[in-house]
Amino acid sequence: MQKTSDAPALVVEAVTKTFSSGRSGAVVTAVDGLSFCAQRGEVLALLGPNGAGKTTTIDMCEGFTRPSSGRIRVLGLDPSTQPEALRARIGIMLQGGGSYSGIRVREMLELTARYNVDPLDPDWLIDLLGLRGVERTTYRRLSGGQQQRLSLALALIGRPELVFLDEPTAGMDAQSRIAVWEIIGALKRDGVTVVLTTHLMDEAEALADHVVIVDHGRVVGQGSPAELTAREEVPSVSILTDRELDLVALGRALEGRGVDTHKARPLRYRVSGGADPGIVASIAAEAQRQGVLLRELSVTHRTLEDVFLDMTGRELRS
Ligand SMILES: Nc1ncnc2c1ncn2[C@@H]1O[C@H](COP(=O)(O)OP(=O)(O)OP(=O)(O)O)[C@@H](O)[C@H]1O
């Protein structure tokens, strides 16, 4: 028999969730046969474009929404039928903050501590999350980033075995982001399982042991960041410039070499289909001709963002 501790911390198996939407009653399939696992003590990042089904999936794992079909187990428990037993063992960082608007930071932490058997010290959390200067401030007067940090403190106060973090650093300044990344690293070292959603590819690349890319409610790719970014058959060149590059002219300069040029995002371009010294020299020469400085040039190093855009497309989602 398998020991409980060897079982994955989170199992999502063939899960589907449909909503009937608006007055027309049209059926929206938010999650469409999703399957993935998070092992104990690992950081799992759920990535996907807007509307891909990430929040719906997390809501079902937390027991706030029931799946239409399929099976979810969190720490061996069914979130739909055992939500109280589960919530005693997990931490939830809610996107909206999860606090009463008139309550002060310290009061909210002390109140939450009282609901836990062996809570962390609110004072320690106030320092850890840089909330000392606002401990007497009411929730509604906090900045968005401070609300996020309080929300993370509330998720951690009960010493959870697993934490769900829905876009944990959304709206945070660079200092707060680094602090949160360090906290996530410390949780992992303590053996806590972390399941997070994010739109920040560098966040997923820096933190996650396992990445699950979701689109239209389905898994379109998964693996470690290293596995996902290593899967490239044809070499390519990625460049970062100090100003806009004329891509049509670059395309002309590379004509006959069997490569495609495209803009990955502002000032970041990609020449795919081949990479040899001649192609690199032509790119540099064309940039020089246009008076454009190449700030970075790398060969065949796909980032998680490249993988994500290849798997989910470049069109804007409604
Ligand atoms: N309660 C609901 N009623 C109807 N449709 C819903 C409901 N909740 C979510 N949806 C729809 O399900 C789909 C998935 O939404 P979800 O919020 O899970 O996506 P997401 O990946 O978290 O997106 P984002 O990155 O924008 O937060 C969307 O089309 C959304 O409009």
TrEMBL record:
Location relative to the cell: Cell membrane
Protein's UniProt keywords contain Membrane: yes
Membrane topology type: Peripheral membrane protein
Pfam family, one: ABC_tran
GO biological process, one term: transmembrane transport
GO terms under cellular component: plasma membrane
Annotated GO MF terms: ATP binding; ATP hydrolysis activity
Keywords: Antibiotic resistance, ATP-binding, Cell membrane, Membrane, Nucleotide-binding, Translocase, Transport
Keyword Cell inner membrane: no
Top-level lineage group: Bacteria
Main location: membrane
Protein name: Spermidine/putrescine ABC transporter ATP-binding protein
Native source species: Corynebacterium liangguodongii
